[in-house]
Design a protein that fits this description.
Length: 162
Amino acid sequence: MQTQQTVGSYFKTMNILHYVMCLGFILIVAGARVYVKQNPDTQAFPQNFVFEIIGIAIGAIGVMAARFLFFQKAKEALSVFTLGEKLNIFRFAHLIQIAILEGVGMINIVFYFLTHKDLHFFIAVGIAIMMVFRRPQRPIAAMVLFSGMDDKQIIYDDSIPI
């Protein structure tokens, strides 16, 4: 016997997935910090500002691109009429956004391993904080998935089947 998924359970599973992804990235950032602080800089890597500029640029471009792609992908839901398809588009757009942020953060962690500059660590921490606050929320879903005011209320009812 198969149970039918509701809007409430859908958002619960999306939030659990979101927090697991964020927790995994935060553990990597914390592990990188501990490792770099316990192993002193050997000065084998040349100290120049190229990696700092690249890290800042990748971080800024990644943050803007993640949000832009989220809204671009979520806009596709306006042409779909079933709630399940709309929510799947929202999940896909959200996962793309989080994946881009996580990728940009991982690049800065790699730069942190290479250069031992705290700037890259703090960029990764900022991206981790951004990931945590960009969780899948119903008001955001209602804003990007529906065009009419009467349709938006469906996202707030936990018992509606998908």
